[in-house]
Design goal:
The complex is a heterodimer of chains A (326) and B (339).
Chain A lengths: L1 E4 H15 L3 E5 L15 H5 L4 E3 L4 H13 L3 E8 L7 H14 L9 E6 L14 H5 L5 E3 L4 H13 L4 E6 L6 E4 L12 E4 L4 E5 L3 H16 L3 E5 L2 E3 L3 H11 L2 E8 L4 H12 L9 E5 L8 H7 L3 H13 L1
Parallel strand pairs in A: 2-3, 2-4, 4-5, 5-7, 6-7, 10-11, 10-13, 13-14
Antiparallel strand pairs in A: 1-8, 6-12, 9-11
Chain B lengths: L3 H6 L7 H26 L14 H10 L5 E5 L3 H6 L4 H8 L23 E5 L5 H14 L6 E6 L6 H13 L3 E7 L2 E2 L2 E2 L22 E4 L3 H16 L5 E6 L19 H7 L2 H11 L4 H24 L23
Parallel strand pairs in B: 1-2, 1-3, 3-4, 4-8, 7-8
Antiparallel strand pairs in B: 5-6
Helix pairs in contact in B: 2-3, 2-10, 2-11, 3-8, 5-11, 6-7
């Protein structure tokens, strides 16, 4: 058992899989000699050498296209897109190529690859380097979409993603890289499509993802201590496949559900979850389904503005408290 | 098949009769199948869209004949020719165009996505430029695993103006990948003359130097020229010499796609190019090398018979069954996204 940062967990997760399987290769901008702009790939180049850990030009289409061609013909590439905002310049691969080739070819084409990316706000980088784009990916049939919130989940879910036969978008949260958590020694392998109840509670269910998970947990502690409201907090972890049973089971017990989403409001992942609850658990509900999201607005750079636009612990506490008391 | 007397007339010929006859058969096969696809479209039996390679047969035949088993082809939506040239049966191609259950992908992909991995046809890509980086990735795998196959990526002149083209060329050159980029310059990007929208006269050739590559612009209507050029590029790629970019000058006899009568072409242009019809050129070539009219006629008849049989088989084939509607979205065979 050791305490590890989320950043070091990325390194350990990639190293675990590259040590296990020679077909796992890694490419991206500044990932090899420089160790990544977020220092989340330090030492991999030295450990696995220049044939397996490769710096690319600033060519996001070439990165994802090459990953796909390699995956189709027998490798298991991990490709890094430095900021998830850059998905917009290589979206053809994410939207048209990776996810549709198997279906269109009646099962001939395989695409076992992982796209790792730095997602999310909190670094004061402004509107084009801070977005939460999980909803861009979740809506595309054929992709899997994963977003861990803790170091142990980073390793276990990254390993599961690399071993998965489908294309996986692996969203690392930039504001979590420095956070720490206990991680056991030895190989760690988790399962995609499994949500985790991180805090049991009886009054309301809060579902959250990535950076919103620690905020939901902090809000739950505050709600319990200051308002006597006992919340169950679920880390969704994997948007596709989606563990709806864990969420529906929790809502059946609590009768209430809140989503805490960093993505802008329209078509955020929480809307899909809430619609499933409304469809399938309507008679379990004791009140409205409430989404706490970043508003439908680009992200500002200034710290005071950025902090104000994301769902905060206080905003979560306030919405849950007002909803339950109304 | 091989006429021994004719073969003797081809002494000192670097290509040889056996390959020449294959180059011819391949071109005729494409011509016949593409013409049939057009006829079937007029009968409302080819659904959706289709992009024909009538007039461009020499490029597909020349490259495919120069390939070894295991070499990989990456095509565009104008990919019927390259798919047929790798040996995919005509029935499989026409069946997919007619969206029948006997099609290459049982009607799930359609005309623009012909794929037959068992023949090395690694897909036909309908988003311009998308497959150039993908071909790089397949070539990277060959390089990494020390396998000696080469990836060949075919695309039109219009592709040279999209970002992915330039990203892929640079990437392939920097990584010295065993990949061959083949631009079929048929003078039109969809409906617009390529010269009207491109800063240089040779859309691919004049870009080569930007990536440290040789400028190669060839007569794409002469299958011998294409074959020889392809052989050289394959040898270079297999020897670790990196990528090649080859521009083949050719001409599309039909419109861009099924709905296009190509009225934007100046009067007489099509007729001038038809004088340089690749199949006409090649028939003359075979005769020069002593191949008899009888041998040629037999190839023509054999191809036509196979296309006729394929047509009838496709007309008789059922529609795809509903039980394939939701298969192969994910690798587990299904489309489940939740529990």
């Amino acid at each position: 058992m050791a305490e590890l940062t989320y950043r070091d967990a990325v390194i350990r997760g990639i190293a675990q899989e590259m040590s296990r399987d020679e077909d796992v290769v890694f490419l991206g901008e500044d990932v090899a000699k420089a160790g990544g702009v977020f220092k989340a790939t330090v030492g991999l180049y030295e450990k696995f050498g220049p044939l397996r850990v490769r710096d690319t030009p600033i060519s996001e289409q070439a990165i994802l296209g090459a990953a796909m061609g390699a995956a189709m013909t027998g490798l298991k590439p991990i490709a890094e897109i430095m900021f998830s905002d850059f998905f917009a310049v290589c979206f053809d691969y994410i939207a048209n190529e990776f996810p549709k080739s198997r279906y269109m070819t009646n099962g001939q084409t395989k695409c076992p690859l992982v796209v790792r990316t730095g997602n999310g706000a909190g670094s004061r980088f402004g509107a084009q380097h801070s977005q939460s784009v999980e909803n861009w990916c979740m809506m595309i049939p054929g992709l899997k979409v994963v977003a861990p919130s803790s170091p142990i989940d980073v390793i276990g879910l990254l390993a599961a993603s690399v071993r998965d036969p489908d294309p996986v978008i692996f969203l690392e949260h930039k504001s979590l890289y420095a956070t720490k958590g206990e991680v056991p020694d030895g190989e760690i392998l988790d399962k995609l499509g499994t949500a985790k109840i991180l805090r049991p509670g009886k009054d309301a269910t809060i579902v959250a993802l990535a950076l919103m998970v620690p905020r939901a947990l902090a809000a739950a502690e505050k709600l319990a201590a200051e308002h006597g409201i006992d919340c169950e907090v679920i880390d969704v972890r994997s948007l596709v496949p989606l563990d709806t049973q864990t969420i529906l089971g929790s809502v059946a017990r609590t009768g209430r559900c809140f989503s805490v989403e960093e993505n802008p409001r329209l078509c955020g992942w929480g809307a899909e979850i809430m619609s499933i609850i409304a469809d399938e658990a309507f008679y379990d509900l004791d009140g409205p389904l409430v989404r706490i999201t970043t508003p439908h607005c680009p992200l500002p750079a200034a710290d005071i503005l950025e902090d104000a636009i994301l769902p905060s612990v206080d905003r979560i506490v306030d919405r849950v408290k007002r909803t339950l008391n109304s | 098949m091989l006429d021994k007397a004719a073969a003797q007339t081809a002494v000192n010929d670097d290509i040889g009769e056996e390959i020449r006859l294959e180059l011819y058969r391949s071109q005729v096969n494409i011509r016949e199948a593409e013409q049939r696809a057009y006829d079937l479209f007029l009968q409302n039996l080819v659904k959706g869209t289709s992009h024909l390679s009538l007039g461009q047969e020499a490029v597909a035949a020349g490259f495919a004949t120069a390939m070894k088993k295991g070499d990989l082809s990456f095509c565009t939506y104008r990919g019927h020719a390259h798919t047929l040239a790798r040996g995919v049966p005509v029935e499989k191609v026409l069946g997919e165009l007619m969206q029948r259950d006997n099609g290459l992908m049982r009607g799930k992909g359609g005309s623009m996505h012909l794929t037959s991995e068992e023949h090395g046809v690694m897909g036909s890509y309908a988003i311009i430029g998308a497959h150039l980086p993908i071909a790089c990735g397949a070539a990277w795998r060959a390089q990494y695993k020390k396998q000696d196959d080469v990836s060949v990526c075919f695309f039109g002149d219009g592709t040279t103006n999209i970002g992915a083209f330039h990203e892929a060329l640079n990437f392939a050159a920097v990584w010295k990948l065993p990949v061959i980029f083949v631009c079929e310059n048929n003078l039109y990007m969809e409906y617009t003359p390529i010269g009207d929208v491109t800063a240089v006269p040779s859309p691919a050739g004049d870009r080569a130097s930007a990536y440290g590559l040789e400028k190669i612009v060839i007569d794409g209507n002469d299958a011998d020229v294409v074959y020889r050029t392809a052989k050289k590029a394959f040898d270079k790629a297999r020897a670790g010499g990196g990528p090649s970019l080859i521009e083949c000058l050719t001409y599309r006899h039909s419109g861009h796609s099924r709905a296009d009568p190509a009225k934007y072409r100046p009067e007489g242009e099509l007729e001038r190019w038809k004088l340089r019809d690749p199949i006409k050129i090649y028939r003359e070539r075979l005769k020069q090398f002593g191949v008899t009219d009888e041998t040629i006629a037999k190839i023509d008849a054999d191809v036509k018979r196979v296309v006729d049989e394929a047509t009838e088989a496709c007309k008789a084939a059922p529609n795809p069954p509903m039980d394939i509607l939701f298969t192969d979205v994910y690798a587990d065979g299904g489309f489940a996204w939740r529990n």
